[in-house]
Amino acid sequence: MAVLSAKLASAALAFILVAASLGLIEAREAGIGIGIEIGARGKPRQREFDYFNLALQWPGTYCQRTRHCCSSNACCRGSNSPSVFTIHGLWPDYNDGTWPACCTRKHFDEKEISTLLDPLEKYWPSLSCGNPSSCHEKHGTCSAPVTGDEYNYFLTTLNVYFKYNVTKVLNEAGYVPSNTEKYPLGGIVSAIQNAFHATPKLACRNGAVEELHICFYKDFKPRDCVVGSSSSSDVLSSSNSCPNYISLPAYASLGAGNAESKISWVPDDVL
Ligand code: U2P
């Protein structure tokens, strides 16, 4: 496959930006300027990804930002709201820190994953009422060279999530949900390193863990998430806005019974 010359690459870039402005793809997430190739019909195509990033969300932190409830927002399930790390996505990523997105025109079809809906609702729920991404199967289509069709993408993601159980690893190391404790970032990173022999990446909000990423080679053997360096000080400083001591907040019930609550229930079609 011929990689585009500089001139054609800028034309391809213009195509992507126009497409993005039309809402066809998300420009920031389309691997702009890297590895754009020409497909069989002369259309720009994103090159194959380098590794997988299993992005997990911590509902105890994420749900603190909830302002609207709708039927799909798992933050609003009261005592049934998730109390473990949940799946944000299995992202195909490039080693340079960018990622492809929406690699084919294939649309998400819920029927193809009907047998997986129960575990997906529980472990891969939406934690907001926002609109989904401008293309469906944003990550699944780009993972397809490894994970195959839609069903296999979701099944593979669930299997990897269950096999590498971050919540269990942290609980067993004494890092349990708490609204008073703060834990050393280095201790949390070490617990994951010891369990999976790979370095995770964390992102925090106001000192609380919001996301935890674990990364895999294409054969799903764990690898470091940090790109380009493996020194532990880099790991900690690249832990996006996490201070040295971080919290893992317990989920606080939203809405009903909370006089201070500014959370409103809104019909799904309004959002
Ligand atoms: O980080 C903001 C959003 O960018 C997308 N993202 C980020 C990092 C990465 O490696 N891959 C990736 O896709 C995610 O978009 P989403 O899947 O949520 O639409 C992430 O939320």
TrEMBL record:
SUPFAM superfamilies xref list: Ribonuclease Rh-like
Q: In its UniProt record, which GO terms are filed under biological process?
A: RNA catabolic process
Residues crossing the lipid bilayer are none
Do you know which PROSITE patterns this protein is assigned to? Answer: RNASE_T2_1 (PS00530)
Provide the GO MF annotations for this entry: hydrolase activity; ribonuclease T2 activity; RNA binding
Q: What does this protein do?
A: Self-incompatibility (SI) is the inherited ability of a flowering plant to prevent self-fertilization by discriminating between self and non-self pollen during pollination. In many species, self-incompatibility is controlled by the single, multiallelic locus S.
- Signal sequence span is 1-27
Q: Name one GO cellular component term.
A: extracellular region
Name residues in a coiled coil: none
The entry's family comment says: Belongs to the RNase T2 family.
Organism name: Rubus argutus
What is the protein name stated in its UniProt record?
Uncharacterized protein
Q: Which InterPro entries match?
A: Ribonuclease_T2_eukaryotic, RNase_T2-like, RNase_T2-like_sf, RNase_T2_His_AS_1
Keyword terms of this UniProt record: Disulfide bond, Endonuclease, Glycoprotein, Hydrolase, Lyase, Nuclease, Signal
